[in-house]
Specification:
Blueprint lengths: L2 E9 L5 E8 L4 E5 L6 H16 L7 H10 L7 H22 L3 H5 L7 E9 L2 H13 L4 E6 L17 H5 L7 E4 L1 H19 L4 E5 L6 H11 L6 E3 L8 H7 L6 E3 L6 H9 L5 E2 L8 H13 L4 E2 L9 H13 L6 E2 L6 H6 E3 L1 E4 L2 E4 L7 E3 L1 H4 L11 E4 L4 E2 L2
Parallel strand pairs: 4-5, 4-12, 5-7, 6-17, 7-8, 8-9, 9-10, 10-11
Antiparallel strand pairs: 1-2, 2-3, 4-15, 13-16, 14-15, 17-18
Length: 405
């Protein structure tokens, strides 16, 4: 089965998505997600100019060899652009192989370890009461685990909230440059424990709660926060510090028993190797879309299982339904699966472009037995939603110092 074309589509049905379509001489095609939020066109250029010419004529069944060819063969290994491009190709090849075999991809990985996929939702608000009201609605919808994010008093547009804006495009207004937000660590540390205290007082200890720091703290600040949150029994504290220095997490671990999760910006096993081996984290959150596809993530999941580290793949709205489906197949297989981040299935526009087989039921995702990844892409509908340049926000301290967003 020879590859005869690699098509790249960029569309914006609510968010920008980069979709890869690999066509073969047998008339079958596979789909992959190569979306890198805020740097989409860099991945498109990588795919169009550097990867596509190398794949024409190759045997689409040779997934492992093609992965190694794209990783080792370019010399300039790793990095988010390279690994997201590889991910799009790798997903499409797995999708193809499943279609040829007449099997869902998880069967090719080794079959099911579970019958359904536990997810956590997001409860956001401009104040504690609004956040807790949102939490209550998610509990009513069947969620067993929920991430809490709340605007910090005195800081407009804190991570996880958008003030009066509905999305990042509105934040940018008529000036398509990164929006800027103020950050104050002291205000944040003084406020967040009260959010979880009131959540437990109102809803008890049965619901699992999570929180994303989004890499805003130093290790000792993160350790202090983890210690203060211990009475509220979080499922995990996400990205408490920037992860470029993996030793940071060892310091945090020495001071708190609050479980730690990290990995959404990682793009290879080497970003997580030391953290996993030292058991400095409890959950690895790498995304198939940003870390080389199913071939790469399966290896990382197996490696993590040796050190009692569970998986909690990144599931933001800027990963397409193809990427979410890839996670679903990995999650239903992985013996050390922990939980999946879930923000819903997108709006009407997205569902016009992407047809998927995932369904939500009582705090879990259900995966139907459809050959391949179980997602299709409507090229004609995608044309109705052209690319719009967009950026994630940046943070500055009140004195103007650039900070981690």
């Amino acid at each position: 089965m020879k590859i005869i074309d690699v098509k790249i589509f960029v569309s914006c049905p609510s968010r920008n998505f980069v979709t890869v379509k690999i066509e073969t001489d047998e008339g079958l095609y596979g789909l992959g997600d190569a979306t890198l939020n805020g740097r989409e066109m860099a991945v498109v250029a990588y795919l169009q100019e550097h990867i596509k010419p190398c794949l024409i004529g190759k045997d689409a069944h040779q997934i492992e060899d093609i992965w190694q060819y794209l990783y080792k063969g370019c010399y300039w290994r790793r990095g988010p652009i390279t690994m997201t491009a590889i991910a799009g190709i790798d997903m499409a090849l797995w999708d193809l192989k499943g279609k040829v075999a007449g099997l869902p991809v998880y069967q090719l990985l080794g079959g099911k370890s579970r019958t359904k996929i536990k997810v956590y939702g997001h409860a956001n608000g401009q104040n504690i009461d609004e956040t807790l009201d949102h939490l209550g609605k998610l509990i009513e919808d069947g969620y067993k685990a929920v991430r809490l994010q709340c605007a910090i008093p005195g800081l407009e547009g804190t991570y996880g909230t958008l003030a009066d804006k509905k999305d990042y495009y509105e934040l940018q207004s008529n000036r398509p440059l990164p929006p800027e937000q103020l950050w104050d660590t002291n205000k944040y540390l003084n406020f967040i424990p009260s959010l979880f205290k009131k959540a437990r007082e109102k809803y008890g200890m049965e619901i699992q709660l999570l929180h994303d720091v989004h890499s805003r703290l130093t290790p000792i600040e993160a350790a202090k926060l983890g210690k203060e949150l211990e009475p509220y029994n979080l499922l995990f504290l996400e990205d408490p510090v920037p992860a470029e220095n993996q030793s940071n997490y060892k310091l945090i671990r020495h001071h708190t028993t609050t479980p730690l999760a990290v990995g959404e910006v990682f793009n290879s096993i080497w970003d997580a190797k030391k953290l996993i081996e030292s058991q400095s984290i409890d959950y690895i959150r790498m995304a198939a879309t940003h870390a080389g596809g199913l071939t790469s993530i399966k290896r990382i999941m197996d490696f993590a299982s040796l050190y009692n580290v569970r998986t909690a793949p990144h599931g933001p709205p800027d990963i397409s339904p193809i990427g979410h489906a890839a996670h679903a197949h990995l999650n239903i297989w992985a013996p050390n699966f922990g939980i999946q981040e879930f923000v819903g299935f997108g709006g009407t526009d997205m569902n016009k472009v992407f047809k998927h087989s995932l369904t939500y039921d009582n705090g879990h995702l259900l995966l139907k037995d459809i050959p391949g990844l179980g997602v299709d892409f409507d090229e004609q509908e995608a044309k109705q939603f052209p690319y719009k340049r967009s950026y994630l926000p940046i943070s500055r301290l009140e004195d103007g110092t650039l900070w981690d967003w």
